[in-house]
Specification:
The structure is a single chain. The protein is mainly alpha-helical and 179 residues long. It has one domain (18-158). Helices cover 80% and strands 0% of the residues. The mean pLDDT is 87. This is DivIVA domain protein.
C-alpha cells in the first residue's frame, strides 16, 4: 500500500512535451493531503472497530455469564423447590406419625385409666355390698337382742303382781315397814 511519503517522494521523468510540473505537484499535494486524511480516518476506524470488537466480546462474555448465572439460578431454584417439597413431605410424614403415635398413646392411657377407674368402682361396689351386709347383719343382731330384751321385759311383767283395780287404774304401792 502506498503511503503519503511514497507519493511525495515519487519523481517523474521529464519529457519535451510533458505536463506542467507545478500543476502536477499541486495535484500530487492534494492527493497526498486526501490520502493522508483517508489513512488517518482508516486508522481511527480500525481503532474504533477494535474497541467495538473488544466491547462486543466483553458484552458476549457478560451475556454468556448472565446466561450461565441464570441457568445456575434456575437450576438452584428447581433444586431448592424440590428440596423444600421433599422436606415438607418428610415433615408431613413425620407429623402424621407423631400424631398417630400420640393418638395410640392417648388411647392406651385412656384404656389404662378406664381400667383403673373400673377397678376402683368394683372395689367401691364391693365395699358398699360388704357394708350393706354388715348393716343387715347388725340390724338382725339388734332385732334379735331387742326381741330377747322384750321377752325378758314381758317375763318380768308377767312375774309381777297386778297393781291395778277392777277399773284398770293403777294403785299406789305402799312402802314396806321397817319393823
Amino acid at each position: 500500500m502506498l503511503t503519503p511519503k511514497d507519493i511525495q517522494a515519487k519523481e517523474f521523468g521529464k519529457s519535451f512535451r510533458g505536463f506542467d510540473e507545478a500543476e502536477v505537484n499541486d495535484f500530487l499535494n492534494e492527493i497526498i493531503k486526501d490520502y493522508t486524511a483517508l489513512l488517518e480516518e482508516n486508522e481511527t476506524l480500525r481503532t474504533e472497530l477494535a474497541r467495538a470488537q473488544k466491547s462486543n466480546e466483553e458484552f458476549h462474555r457478560i451475556e454468556q455469564g448472565m446466561r450461565d448465572t441464570l441457568m445456575a439460578a434456575q437450576k438452584t431454584a428447581e433444586e431448592v423447590t424440590a428440596n423444600a417439597k421433599e422436606s415438607a413431605d418428610q415433615i408431613l410424614e413425620s407429623a402424621a406419625k407423631k400424631a398417630q403415635n400420640l393418638c395410640r398413646d392417648a388411647e392406651i392411657r385412656s384404656k389404662a385409666q378406664l381400667e383403673e377407674v373400673a377397678d376402683k368402682v368394683r372395689g367401691i361396689v364391693g365395699e358398699y355390698e360388704r357394708l350393706v351386709q354388715e348393716k343387715h347383719s347388725f340390724l338382725r343382731r339388734m332385732k334379735s337382742s331387742v326381741q330377747e330384751e322384750l321377752k325378758r321385759i314381758d317375763a318380768e311383767i308377767a312375774g309381777m303382781p297386778d297393781m291395778t283395780d277392777s277399773t284398770g287404774t293403777p294403785q299406789p304401792v305402799e312402802a314396806p315397814s321397817k319393823e
